[in-house]
Amino acid sequence: MASPQQHDLPSPVTTAGRDGLDALLADPARAVIALDFDGTLAPIVPDPEQARAHPDAVRALAALAPRVASVAVITGRPADVAVRHGGFAGVPGLEHLVVLGHYGAERWDAVTGAVHAPPPHPGVAAVRAELPGVMEALKPVGASSGAWVEEKGRAVAVHTRRASDPQAAFEALRAPLTDLAARHGLIVEPGRFVLELRPPGMDKGAALTAYVREAGAGSVLYAGDDLGDLPAYAAVDKLRSDGVPGLLVCSGSAEVTELADRSDVVVDGPEGVVGLLSSLAHAMSSRP
Ligand SMILES: O=P(O)(O)OC[C@H]1O[C@H](O[C@H]2O[C@H](CO)[C@@H](O)[C@H](O)[C@H]2O)[C@H](O)[C@@H](O)[C@@H]1O
């Protein structure tokens, strides 16, 4: 597994991944590097408010960003929250960083420091109002015991990581929350012991594809750890078939296995992601 100090690049396990890495290294100035936040740049912790980028993440991103076309963070978090928890603002080297929040519905640009977002979906307020009653009604069967609600502005997320049985609580809540979301025109986004009720119409795949097109990228790297990253994986597959080579990186964990099976490279969590970013920056700086 890679560590932040290592400079050895990993060997992708697929031909498409090897082509992607070769393209990234051959022409870094046309490469887009896109990464998820929680579980990829930031270690998973029990309280989302306490999550912070890996201590070496900003340094690694700042070393890489001036060598590539652009770097973007694509996250389920509100964009300003990811910027704050990531420590991404005002960093030399990250002057052009973009954070696409709420699965791409929001955009923060380091150049302006401003967040652009669409009007709020009315279903979120309705779900917010009904959610306490739905969770209270599930208490007699123990389903919502220890579950709690994260207020996200444009969405609400029900977390079960701190429940006595996180997986049982997750499974018991899934159907009622899906029903609640559907009644108000929202969807449920499942993640690592979290069920997020959010507006439809945007996902990380659409966000990544639009961003790669906007950048006129000749290659792309995407790194993620969770189910919400799968649309971005599908987008990289599609970009590859359209002639844009790509590298799929999984920030590996015992909690989610779906991404590892579809990745070109699996690293050991955020520590491994930071190591990979550092290795890429080193390799790009060593080339003529
Ligand atoms: O797209 P991401 O950047 O991966 O964000 C997805 C969700 O991440 C957060 O929850 C996850 O991280 C928490 C802090 O480590 C952890 O406690 C939780 O169990 C994880 O699911 C965030 O709180 C959610 O709002 C995001 O949807």
TrEMBL record:
Family: Belongs to the trehalose phosphatase family.
InterPro entries assigned to the protein according to its UniProt record, in alphabetical order: HAD-like_sf, HAD_sf, OTSB-like, Trehalose_PPase
Domain of life: Bacteria
CC cofactor: Mg(2+)
UniProt organism field: Streptomyces antnestii
Pfam family, one: Trehalose_PPase
Protein function: Removes the phosphate from trehalose 6-phosphate to produce free trehalose.
Known pathway: Glycan biosynthesis; trehalose biosynthesis
Keyword field: Hydrolase, Magnesium, Metal-binding
KW Lipoprotein (keyword) present: no
Biological-process GO terms, alphabetical: trehalose biosynthetic process
Protein's recorded name: Trehalose 6-phosphate phosphatase
Catalysed reactions, as listed in the record: alpha,alpha-trehalose 6-phosphate + H2O = alpha,alpha-trehalose + phosphate
MF term (GO), any: metal ion binding
EC number: 3.1.3.12
